[in-house]
Amino acid sequence: MKNNTQQEKDHPSKKIMPETTLKEIKELNTTIKTTSEQIITQTISHLKKINPNRPQEMEYFDELANMFGKRTQELEQYKAEGKKIVGYNCIFAPLELIIAAGAVPVRINSGWYDTSKLGDRVVPVEVCSIIRSTIGAKMIELSPFLELSDVLITVLTCDGMTKLSEILGGYKKVWHLSNPRIKDSDQALKFWNEEIKQIKNNLEKLTGNKITTKTLKPAILKTQKATKAFRRLQNIRKDNAVISGQDALLVTQTFMWDDIERWTEKTNILCDELDRRIQAKEWICPPDTPRVMVTGTPMFWPDNWKLPSLIEEGTPKGILVADELCSSERLLYDPVGIDEWTMTDMLNAIGERYLMACTCPCFTSKDGNEDRINWLLTKIKDHKIQGVIYYVTRGCMLYAMEYTTVKRALDKINIPVYYLDTDYTREDTGQLKTRVEAFLEMLNTQIDL
Amino acid sequence: MTQQQTNEAFWRWQEYQRVMPNKSWTKNDIITAGVDVGSVGSKATVLVNGEIYSWSITRTGSNSSDSAAKALNWALKDTGIQQSDLKYIIGTGYGRVNISFANKALTEIACHAKGANYIWGSQVHTILDVGGQDIKAIRCDDTGRVTSFLMNDKCAAGTGRGMEVFADLLKIPIEKIGEMSLNITEEPPSVSCTCVAFAKTEAMGLLRKGWSKEKVLAAYTKAMAIRMSNLIKRVGLEPALVITGGQSKNIGIVSRVETALEVKCLPIPNWRENGIDPMIAGALGAGIYAKAIYDKTQTTRD
Fold first, then answer.
1. Contacts of A416 in chain B (CB under 8 A)
2. How many separate domains does chain A show?
3. Containing domain of residue A13, as a range?
4. How close B272 gets to chain A, by Cα (Å)?
5. What average pLDDT does this structure show over A139-150?
6. Least Cα separation, residue B109 to chain A (angstroms)
7. C-beta atoms of B110 and A434 within 8 A
8. Which of A237, A252, A262, A405 has the fewest CB atoms within 10 Å, i.e. is most exposed?
9. pLDDT band at B197 (very low <50, low <70, confident <90, very high)
10. Shared domain check, B295 and B228
């Protein structure tokens, strides 16, 4: 644990959080970490219990789910060897460049409920739960990934992320990555490509490694393979109920901190097992189980896992077959498309993949955020979705405001959508359960008289 | 202590049981039950061949399962029907998961729509259910099947519990509250805050300022009605509109919701005579679903 005076030396004038004594930091860190490890163990054994015939290859991801476990030790080892860890708060961060520079990318958004209450000491309670929770996690140095990061790439997508960047900047070196709010203009892409180049220069300076065609090409190939494995998993879920939505979400979630190559390999092995289960017709739920998709605010491990479990474990049960979350499906759906392996082409392709393919509600155009609508409509058709849950946590303004547009589009194709608002808390589970179950009853044709 | 007990009487609404007159049953009939354990009231219905036979309305105690048993036993009282005669029981409401003797649980949203469809008929397409701890706006088709719904946050604002608090504060029996809120010469502006805790403070301020109880009540009732109307607007009003739950009997709420939405609700059945009390809509829907699901299990077995 780094002490406060050391932090002050690093960033003397920028500390925003109230003074927390080392004793309090230590105490809160121990309590919350212990609770968190218990919750992780409980959630995993619960997933095993509710599905006795769970894919065996989930075991790898189960172990990875303990964020304080082996992966943290690995990252510590990398650091000891002189490798740099680059934390990021949003999927706009160009992973390929981080890898090409010989650094290790890791996502730092917080899913801890308890730390969001600590965040209330710094920002008002109306602020987005994820932001408050991340602030709280930093306050007590809880997140191993955030703490181990040598630098943070903070993307200025929404207001919360923008100001979070300032707060974290008091404790860590921060590189801003500013995305334009409009995609379809030449100057937007130009501006964005300049931002990407700046990150490249910064990475080279940090690591002392020049990013060349020789290092960038294999990095791109690596993420392309990850995308391919991810798409394979999603394609399996299209037509075959062989994996629960909760398990699939755990696979995508762990991508955020795992070694990309190893994650790809393990995901492919899991898909092999799922393919065998399709052959053996080992379905995890009856064929008439309502097929649900979730869209909205990202969900983060380990605490903010209540919605998937409410969908798949209530009365009646649904199955979560797809999502449009930047913490899952959107992470990996689009590969970097390369025409020629020249430096200029590769950099442009990276810029384009992160900007153009993204359906984040921070974007608008003269037709609104039509990319997101189109993406949702395609997904609904491909995955035979019967109902959509539009999930928003407190203070998540962009997703909350885009609901009306999404609802209008889904009304046109007669797909029911339910707006579910919640916060980083366990207290509203009963209320949410009634809402989710009533929605599933609505989709369920079995209770037709 | 004595003071507190006198206060309690104001918000205490009437618990009662009813057996429908001129109906009978035999051992060959399919008898089902629905039990709706809400946060404030527990309701039970007994149905013979899908027709309402008897019901009860009681206060929910600290234990959901006990409250459910109490409501059901009371509904069965003087009917000659034993619990063992019941072919299928469905639990609903906030405490639905804790009803040990129920065969199945359904949400109160599905049940209220079905119950309203039974009480008022197929013309019902929008239901406002004002429960003890939440309010729900439900849309349904001609058969009483839910097509969409909205719920407010877990908050006493605009709920039956909020009304109880006001009855207590103003020392007016809860049954009289609706009429009294209309006993004014001019409708006052609504209280600015629907949060029960803050509205209470605001109301006390208004009383000190010299407002009559009726006027304060009108201001609070109006605020609640606006909150309810907004929820209905958000879900989309498709006539006919009905109100279920305890507040359906609050004429002050009903008339103000009608004014805000510029539409008339279907009148509540005269439950003191032979009509069905809209407070039991959820339990009634549960009983209807119980019959339907029981029938289905029989056909699959044949």
1. 147-148
2. 2
3. 4-209
4. 31
5. 96
6. 6
7. no
8. A262
9. confident
10. no
CA distance A273 to A2: 44
- Which whole-number Å values give the CA distances from A97 to A93, A102, A197, B241, in the listed order? 9, 9, 10, 59
Tens of pLDDT, residue by residue over A394-418, are 899 999 999 999 999 999 999 999 9
Closest residue in A to B152 (Cα–Cα): A431
User: Interface pTM (ipTM) of the complex?
Assistant: 0.86
Say yes or no for a CB contact (<8 Å) between B145 and A448: yes
Q: Are B151 and A431 a contacting pair at CB < 8 A?
A: yes
Are B131 and B229 part of one and the same domain?
yes
Q: What is the dihedral of CA A387, A393, A398, A404, to 10 degrees?
A: 40
Q: What CATH number does the domain containing B255 carry?
A: 3.30.420.40
- Counting runs of H as helices and runs of E as strands, what totals does chain A give? 19, 8
Distance from C-alpha of A245 to C-alpha of A318, rounded to nearest angstrom: 10
Q: Which residues contact A238 (CB under 8 A, 6 or more apart)?
A: A321, A322, A382, A383, A384
- B152 lies in the same domain as B229: yes
Residues B158 and B255 in one domain: yes
| Rounded average pLDDT over B137-142 | 96
Q: What is the three-class DSSP state of B3?
A: helix
The CATH number of residue A439's host domain is: 3.40.50.11900
Cβ of A431 within 8 Å of Cβ of B145? The answer is no
Q: Is B276 an 8 Å CB contact of chain A?
A: no
Q: Are residues B68 and B154 in the same domain?
A: no
Question: B57, B100, B78: which is closest to B282 by C-alpha?
Answer: B57
Residue B2 has pLDDT above 50, yes or no: no
Residue A438: its chain B contacts at CB < 8 A? 107-110, 146, 149
Buried b (16+ CB within 10 A) or exposed e, A171-207: bbebbbbbbbeebeeeebbebbbebbeebbebbbebb
How many A×B Cβ pairs under 8 Å?
Answer: 49
Say yes or no for a CB contact (<8 Å) between A447 and B110: yes
Quick check: A441 and B110 CB within 8 A?
yes
Task: Tell me the residue range of the domain where B105 lies.
Answer: 2-120+274-301
Which among A419, A430, A442 is the nearest to B146, CB-wise?
Answer: A442
Task: Give the pLDDT of residue A31.
Answer: 96
Q: Please, are residues B289 and B110 in contact by the beta-carbon 8 Å criterion?
A: yes
8 Å CB contact between B276 and B52: yes
